[in-house]
Amino acid sequence: MIDDVPHDLASLGVFLLVTVFLGGGAAWMTGSGIARGWRPFWQCALALLLVAAVARFLHYALFEQPLLSGAGFALDAIVIVLIGAAGYRATRARQMTTQYRWLYERTGPLTWRARDA
After folding, report:
1. Which are the contacts of 26, defined by CB distance < 8 A and separation ≥ 6?
2. Distance of CA 1 to CAs 6, 13, 19, 25, 99, Å?
3. Which of 54, 59, 99, 103 is deepest in the core (most CB within 10 A)?
4. What pTM was estimated for this model as a whole?
């Protein structure tokens, strides 16, 4: 079935499935979970690099793509870290504005600011 599809289109589909949907979902949950534990962002970044390594392994194991591809890992890592950072920041914004509502107000889905006195 995948042999009937042009190679570029098949690669795009694999990228969307593995990196964006599976890896991105895991990245969002990872970022959100680390934020809920009030841990610093650097711990989130390290965990997200591990998620990117798992995504690269899935590319290799399921779709016979190169395992040790620097460019492939870099692309996976960029997408996964961006999605995970957004999950971290969205959760942290919600935490700051619900737990400290007398100090902070929400200014967007990922931001907050100090309330005026």
Report:
1. 51, 54, 80
2. 11, 13, 21, 26, 52
3. 59
4. 0.89
Q: How many residues does the chain have?
A: 117
pLDDT per position as a tens digit, 40-74: 999 999 999 999 999 999 999 999 888 998 999 99
Q: What is the pLDDT of residue 8?
A: 62
Structure tokens at 99: 């737990």
In degrees to the nearest 10, what's the CA dihedral of 83, 85, 86, 88? 130
Find all residues with CB under 8 Å of 95, minimum gap 6, and list them.
Answer: 35, 36, 38
Query: Could you tell me which residue, 11 or 86, shows the higher pLDDT?
Result: 86
Q: HSE of 117 in the Cβ direction (CA atoms, 13 Å)?
A: 0
Q: Kind and range of the H or E element at 44?
A: helix 41-63
22, 78 Cβ separation under 8 angstroms:
no
Cα–Cα distance measured from residue 104 to residue 17, given in angstroms and rounded to the nearest whole number:
38
Residue 81 has which token pair?
């870290």
pLDDT of the residue at 19: 95
